[in-house]
């Protein structure tokens, strides 16, 4: 016993064309309309490519990309490396002089992105709205940094490493020591030679 009538070949083709046409008229998703920007960090240890998400952290991403465009990161070092935590850079030259920055950006930590291994986030002081140019890349899953941890605010994740996790692991394994007031400084500087927006 047949519960529904199979369409004829002509009706089937008409139905297929109608569905295909309707699908073609549907608006593209945000991710399909514009791919997430990618930035290549060319370092003395190798290349790291990060993908950033303006839909999740618009002010943070705009700020980061402006520093990239301004070539701020060229010649800065990863000045703080803690193997089972994170690597931090973007603010100091090899002689540990801090570069001038633009005004800070507001915290955008409560955006659903997590401080998991490979995630890039903004460094800040105890003031949640103090992030400027410095960022860190998580070398392990750091749930203790996700909003509202550890201080009621969290740390803003705005992207992730999509290429170069092996370079991240190379950086995290570098010997470190203290230099003046700075702790966990690589004994051999690891420099960001340039940061470029990939097309």
CATH class: Mainly Beta
Q: Kindly state the percentage of residues in helix.
A: 10-25%
Q: Termini, distance in Å?
A: 59 Å
Return Rg in Å.
Answer: 23 Å
Strand percentage lies at 25-35%
Strand neighbour order, sheet with most strands: 1-2-7-5-6-4-3-10
The CATH architecture assignment turns out to be Beta Barrel
Report on this model:
With 199 residues, the chain is of the alpha+beta class. It has one domain (36-198): Cyclophilin-like (Cyclophilin). The chain has 4 helices and 10 strands, in the order H-H-E-E-H-E-E-E-E-E-H-E-E-E. It has helices at 9-25, 30-33, 58-69, 165-172, and strands at 38-43, 46-52, 76-82, 86-93, 119-122, 135-138, 157-163, 176-179, 182-186, 191-198. An 8-stranded antiparallel β-barrel has the order 1-2-7-5-6-4-3-10. The protein has a two-stranded antiparallel sheet with strand order 8-9. A hairpin with a 2-residue loop joins strand 8 and strand 9. The longest helix is centred in the N-terminal third of the chain and has 17 residues, at 9-25. The radius of gyration is 23 Å and the shape is globular. The model is unreliable at 1-33 (pLDDT under 50).
What are its keywords?
199 residues; alpha+beta; eight-stranded antiparallel beta barrel; two-stranded antiparallel ribbon; 4 helices
Topology:
Elements: H1 9-25, H2 30-33, E1 38-43, E2 46-52, H3 58-69, E3 76-82, E4 86-93, E5 119-122, E6 135-138, E7 157-163, H4 165-172, E8 176-179, E9 182-186, E10 191-198
Antiparallel strand pairs: 1-2, 1-10, 2-7, 3-4, 3-10, 4-6, 5-6, 5-7, 8-9
